[in-house]
């Protein structure tokens, strides 16, 4: 779920600086920047979505840097955020009718779970919430809607029955090319991040990160369990899976991993179970090589986990299709008034495409982080002493394109809890056992 453990700020998107007329008419122009929190951005069956809700989501998604974007960019993003809020409200109203709204005790339990899962102190959690524009009431309301919609979707998709044997066989026979264990490796990681990126970081500079990484290596050399050390020390969402990154094909690694690291991991002489260190994107990685496949290997329905995977793929695809269809019907039935969109239509030429001068400074001139790999029987060094290699482009333990989904809570994501589009069966990945 997109609503995985706690992180206040998610990937940056465009936000908006549009000011608009309220439902009753009037208001500021699109270019003056006037914003009134109590203005009505849209209504869903008469229920108002206030401008403050839109602004909160915009602030959250833009990392608080919405002022750096042009009014044209910001206007488009605000409309995008509002559309998500409209879809969320439509589904929440359906949840109210279907009786899936959680009790106050359930909301409190989920809020507390999010705070614990964040691995932040109570003060730091509150600070990050305030920075994202959330007070306690807004957080509880968001959690309430997220839980209600999840329970609604679970209720709707409970009608889905498991596939029959002939369906499973037909699916496999029609998608044999997808059922191949690619040449690659299975990895686990402990990530130490010198920057505080809201992932439960305990290190905030290079020196403390190197000290912590060396301490972690000493624990591993002393025989402590890698998964347990990862849960206790990693500053990445993969810690919740004991650092497990799953199976990564060599082709996937080539998209983001340094060549030197790939060569080391894929080398037949590299011992399974051995731990290596690497520096990627300014973070320190302590990687455990759990398994390796030196060639592509077809798998059959009788291979471990394959039949279960086909079953899950068929069931999940049907659930996604049913959820998406249910939401489409709900949107068609709802009476929606989008006042922000109407204001843009009425004043299309007031939106400038020019960004503020202060936003034109590019971060591209920043030096790339050095990367490298080495066995973990040596200490992690500072950047000045690290051997250079190709820079990776990942912000997580495993490259973004292949990282396992995390479990962040809905309350920390501004977007709607709408069902995802149904996955194409042919894209189902083979089991990596």
Give the class from helix and strand content and strand pairing: alpha+beta
The number of E-state strands comes to 10
**So what's the CATH class of the domain at 174-298 and 371-405?**
Alpha Beta
The CATH architecture classification of the domain at 174-298 and 371-405 is: Roll
Major sheet, described briefly? 5 strands, antiparallel
Distance between the termini: 24 Å
Q: Quick recap of the structure?
A:
Helices cover 39% and strands 12% of the residues.
Give the tags:
3-stranded antiparallel beta sheet; disordered N terminus; disordered C terminus; 10 strands; alpha+beta; single chain; globular; Chitinase A, domain 3; 5-stranded antiparallel beta sheet; 433 residues; 12 helices
Describe the structure.
This protein is of the alpha+beta class and 433 residues long. It has a domain at 174-298 and 371-405: Chitinase A, domain 3. It is built from 12 helices and 10 strands. The strands form 3 sheets. The protein has a 5-stranded antiparallel sheet with strand order 5-4-7-6-10, with helices on both faces. α1 (51-61) packs across α2, α2 packs across α5 and α3 packs across α5. The radius of gyration is 24 Å and the shape is globular. Residues 1-34, 361-372 and 382-433 have low confidence and may be disordered.
């Amino acid at each position: 779920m997109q609503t995985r453990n706690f992180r206040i700020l998610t990937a940056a998107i465009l936000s908006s600086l549009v000011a608009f007329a309220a439902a009753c008419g009037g208001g500021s122009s699109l270019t003056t920047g006037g914003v009134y929190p109590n203005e009505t951005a849209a209504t869903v069956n008469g229920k108002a979505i206030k401008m403050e809700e839109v602004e909160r989501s915009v602030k959250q998604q833009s990392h608080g840097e919405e002022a750096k974007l042009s009014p044209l960019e910001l206007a488009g993003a605000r409309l995008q955020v509002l559309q998500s809020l409209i879809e969320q409200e439509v589904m929440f109203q359906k949840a109210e009718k279907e009786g899936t709204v959680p009790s106050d005790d359930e909301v409190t339990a989920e809020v507390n779970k999010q705070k614990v899962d964040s691995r932040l102190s109570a003060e730091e959690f509150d600070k990050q919430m305030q920075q994202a524009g959330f007070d306690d009431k807004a957080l509880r309301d968001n959690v309430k809607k997220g839980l209600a919609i999840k329970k609604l979707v679970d209720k709707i998709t409970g009608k889905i029955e498991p596939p029959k044997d002939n369906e499973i066989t037909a699916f496999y026979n029609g998608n044999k090319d997808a059922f191949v264990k690619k040449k690659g490796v299975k990895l686990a990681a402990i990530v130490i991040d010198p920057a505080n990126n809201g992932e439960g970081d305990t290190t905030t500079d290079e020196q403390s990160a190197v000290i912590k990484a060396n301490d972690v290596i000493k624990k591993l050399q002393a025989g402590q369990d890698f998964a347990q050390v990862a849960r206790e020390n990693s500053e990445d969402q993969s810690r919740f899976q004991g650092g497990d990154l799953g199976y990564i094909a060599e082709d996937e690694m080539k998209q983001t991993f340094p060549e030197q690291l790939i060569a080391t991991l894929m080398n037949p002489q590299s011992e399974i179970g051995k731990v290596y260190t690497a520096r990627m994107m300014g973070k320190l990685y302590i990687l455990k090589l759990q398994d390796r496949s030196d060639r592509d290997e077809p798998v059959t329905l009788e291979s471990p986990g394959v039949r279960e995977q086909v079953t899950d793929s068929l069931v999940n695809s049907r659930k996604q299709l049913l959820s998406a269809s249910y939401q489409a019907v709900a949107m068609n039935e709802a009476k929606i008034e989008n006042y922000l969109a109407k204001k843009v239509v009425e004043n299309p030429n007031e939106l400038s495409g020019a960004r503020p001068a202060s936003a034109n400074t590019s971060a591209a001139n920043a030096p790339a982080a050095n990367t490298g790999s080495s066995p973990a029987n040596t200490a992690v060094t500072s950047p000045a002493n690290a051997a250079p290699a190709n820079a990776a482009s990942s912000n997580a333990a495993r490259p973004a394109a292949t990282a396992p989904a995390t479990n962040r809570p809905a309350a920390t994501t501004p977007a709607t809890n709408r069902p995802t589009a149904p996955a194409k069966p042919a894209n189902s990945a083979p089991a990596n056992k």
